[in-house]
Every structure is written in structure tokens, then in C-alpha cells.
Amino acid sequence: MPADGEDDARRFFCDILGMIELPKPAELAKRGGCWFASGSVQIHVGVDPDFRPARKAHPALRCSDFGQILERLQIHGVPYSEDGSAGAGRAFVHDPFGNRIELIS
Q: What tens digit of pLDDT does each residue of 28-52 get?
């Protein structure tokens, strides 16, 4: 993410995707960024001064509350596209910085 994007990251990963924020070790916290978790999955969103969003490469997150997440995306006005071609509920969304994320039911 670009510098100073932590609040946007928190809104997206915590408020919309339902993850919790993990505290970063003090030495790493100086660099900015945020860490998030849900179950055994962690996503570390770091600051990059030459940031360019990942529009093709992406993490895929299996969601036990897939339908609720899609509802929260709608409520917050976050666009997503559903794609059931993999035989399961599947949607693609971009985080506030333009990084692609796949959500799977």
C-alpha cells in the first residue's frame, strides 16, 4: 500500500472482510503498514514508496461467511464481481489500494 493508508486498510480488512488487526512488533511498526488475521490466515499489508497495485496476482481467501461479506461490500459501496465458474461461490474485489483479492465460499 502507499504511505499513510493504514486507516483505509483497517476499514477494508476489519470492517468489511471481518478480519482482526494484529499488533506488529515495535521494530516493524516503525515502517508503517498493518497485519490482519482471520483464523489461521494472516495478511500483512506493507508500505511501499514505489507502490503499484497487484491487479492480476492475488491471494484467495476461503470465507465461511461468504454471503455476509458480499452484503458488507454492497453496504460499503465496494464493487466486486462474482464468478461461479470454479464450482463454488467466488468473487473478486480490490482493496482500497487496487490490489486484487479473490473471495471463495
A: 999 999 999 999 999 999 999 999 9
Please count the other Cβ atoms lying within 10 Å of the Cβ belonging to residue 1: 21
Domains in the chain, start-ordered, CATH in brackets?
6-104 (3.10.180.10)
Residue appearing with cell numbers 500500500:
1
Q: What is the rounded CA–CA span in Å between residue 76 and residue 84?
A: 23
Which backbone phi and psi does 28 adopt, to 5 degrees? Answer: -80, -30
Distance CA 7, CA 89 (A): 29
Q: What is the H or E stretch that residue 102 is in?
A: strand 100-104
* pTM of the full structure: 0.91
Residue 18 neighbours by CB distance under 10 Å: 15
